[in-house]
Amino acid sequence: MPLMYRKILVPVDGSDPSNIAIAHAVDLAKITQGKIDLIHVVDIADQVEVYTHFQSAHLPEDFLKDFWAIGDEVMNEASSHVPPELRGELLVKTGEPREFLQQFIEKRDYDLVIIGCRGLSTLPSLLLGSVSQYLVQHAPCPIMVVK
Fold first, then answer.
1. Model pLDDT, residue 125
2. What secondary structure does DSSP assign to 6-42, as a single string?
3. What pLDDT score was predicted for residue 127?
4. Run of H or E including 140
5. What would the DSSP string read from start to end of 81-137?
6. β-bridge pairing 35-42 and 7-11
7. Residue 147, H or E segment
């Protein structure tokens, strides 16, 4: 039985590698008649740490709204590159991206994940390793890392 990547997940963050991953997913989904789910994971805990370090311990009321708005902007831009007939779910979630994505992939039974090699991440993420590297090592399905 040939491998048919019909259920494809692309984690997005608005970076150039993320956009390249979307382009690869679109090309592949056209061939396999698959669907592409896009997901953006907002690491609020990491952002709170950065914010409180540089600002103050008090978080403004609109703090979370701002992150959701940014997540929605990232998703709107990313989804504009996926033709409607190939588009699956568009998801904005919160959590630590590496672990969240691993668990999400396990639950959703994806055929393939296509991810950019380096996206937009904060210093702690850079020190701990990239999301793509983590998924290559821990995800239960094939991972295509593009650059």
1. 46
2. -EEEEE--SSHHHHHHHHHHHHHHHHHT-EEEEEEEE
3. 44
4. none
5. TS-GGGEEEEEEEES-HHHHHHHHHHHHT-SEEEEESS-S--HHHHHH--HHHHHHH
6. parallel
7. none
| CB atoms inside a 10 Å sphere around CB 85 | 9
Q: With CA atoms as reference, report the closest residue to 23 among 83, 85, 112, 91.
A: 83
Q: Which of 123, 117, 139 is nearest to 24 (CA)?
A: 117
Distances (CA, A) of 37 to 41, 54, 114, 138: 13, 35, 10, 20
**Residue 55 host element (H or E):** none
Residue 95, both tokens: 């959590």
CB 12 within 8 A of CB 118: no
State pTM to two decimals: 0.84
Token pair 């039974």: residue: 109
**Run of H or E including 50:** helix 44-54
The Cα 74–Cα 12 span in angstroms is: 7
Q: Is the pLDDT of residue 51 over 70?
A: no
Q: Are 74 and 38 in contact (CB under 8 A)?
A: no
